Here is the input.
Amino acid sequence: MKTDLELALECAINIYHQYAVKKPIDDYLSKNEFSELLKENAKPFLHNTIPPNLSVDDYISKLFKKADRNQDGRLKFTEFLTTLNLVFIDAHNRSHKSHSDAGHGHDHGHDHGHDHDHDHGHDHGHGPRK
Here is the structure.
């Protein structure tokens, strides 16, 4: 039986591939595919993590720009993972803020400073479907 974390990781990979093989059919997310993925699969999560005074589209654009490290206008899987990290960190920090606002008082910083590129040149072979 798979653990919750295994299922979550599998789910993230499957959702990535579901959107990456749209148009164009490749193993990358265009900005539109990325936006669609988040809006259709993470709407409540987005609304809970979006910074004040920022629209959903602006927040998604900001995440996309941060993740698109090689600035080619598309996200490979490792860049998509960077985006998930940013969203998770935002959500985690906000969860602590809401707890401290409620009087629990454990507001602490989580700037881990990890700046790694784990692209090992994997080609998942997503050619045109027949």
